## 1
Amino acid sequence: MVSVKFDFLGQPRLRINQVFLDAPEAVIASLGHYLKTRSRVAWKQVGNFVASRDPKTRPVQPVIVQTKGRVFDLAMIRDRINRLYFNGSLDCRIGWAKVGQHRRNARSRTIRYGTYNKALNLIRINPILDDSRVPAIFMDYIVFHELLHAAVPSERGRGRWRHHHGSYRIQERRFPDHALMQKIAADLVMILVTPRAR
């Protein structure tokens, strides 16, 4: 709901959810104080406000998603993985993210392949994966990974939310050839950003 990064000059870059539009003045003041001083006390006050906002009580704009790509149909993959690993118990929506929404991180040489938004109960998959060079089993793994976020709650510790905590990692290893999936994830970074030969 709010993320702050400081550049090498100490200047903040802020991304903030619209829920802050109706935040109390004290919360906005604490956020401003944190941006100037990086005060842990001020940040904790902002965090308490975020934690107090139950996603079920917030008005959520409907999000229209596209499930069919040129190569992969996400709805079919989700339904199959949901049956195989979660006994069909999950009701997450799924769709392709907008182009550019999950950019490649050139610094760490990674790609964010997917995300799960709890408030929207929505999985978004990076459209860079809608490519015939991507193994179908890897698409299964990515959808499994995001469905698992819906099934295994995040944990709060040391002042932040942890999505890939120990319990999550144990469940994630249920996927066949988990180590191979990690290797494919790393290998695909360079493959998918290389233009296709014509």
## 2
Amino acid sequence: MKGILFVFIGGGLGSVLRFILGKIGNSNGTGIPYGTFAANILGSLLIGFILGWAAKNQGISENTMLLLATGFCGGFTTFSTFAYENHVFLKAGDFTSFALYTIGSFVVGFMAVFTGIWLVKHF
């Protein structure tokens, strides 16, 4: 039950921060939803850092992992919004934005995870 509370708190904080980034970075018009993109990339970097730190130091408690990795990163990043935004691009016939957003999110997201792990490993 304690673990659920940590996920709940972390998820709530991550979701609120994602909401704020979305309000700031996503335009009401057409174009790439930079707020969602930023949340997903920053969340990928953060989870790489957290999991890299946990692997390197063996010092992060299960509750801290639940709070930060499962809760915060899970609430902060959003696959469902990413999928919906791509649906909007396809429905509008904006294949260029669809391709840029999709490929960019996957490539930069993976690179962010690896960068987070690399940073912990080398510093």
## 3
Amino acid sequence: MVLGASGLQTFFKVTLPNIKWGIIYGVILCNARAMGEFGAVSVVSGHIRGMTNTVPLQVEILYNEYNYTAAFAVASLLAFLALVTLAVKTIAEWNMQRQLNDN
């Protein structure tokens, strides 16, 4: 105990504010990487249908089955999510820069 503060209080009042932007940026980048993962799942995991599937692999499956409408719809959803991720990243960077300029 440091001056009466518990471990959780120290974490939430000292540590977390200092690492907040790193955590936010890491989550955004992990999200972007997970949405676009194609090669590792297709090659390393064996591409087991129904078990090791990602959105890009689903687009490929639909396209190979000549289901172009569904493939386009899923690819459009993936593109929309990519744009949302980019917007969140831009807003986070803008807020971080504003906070640094205020201090």
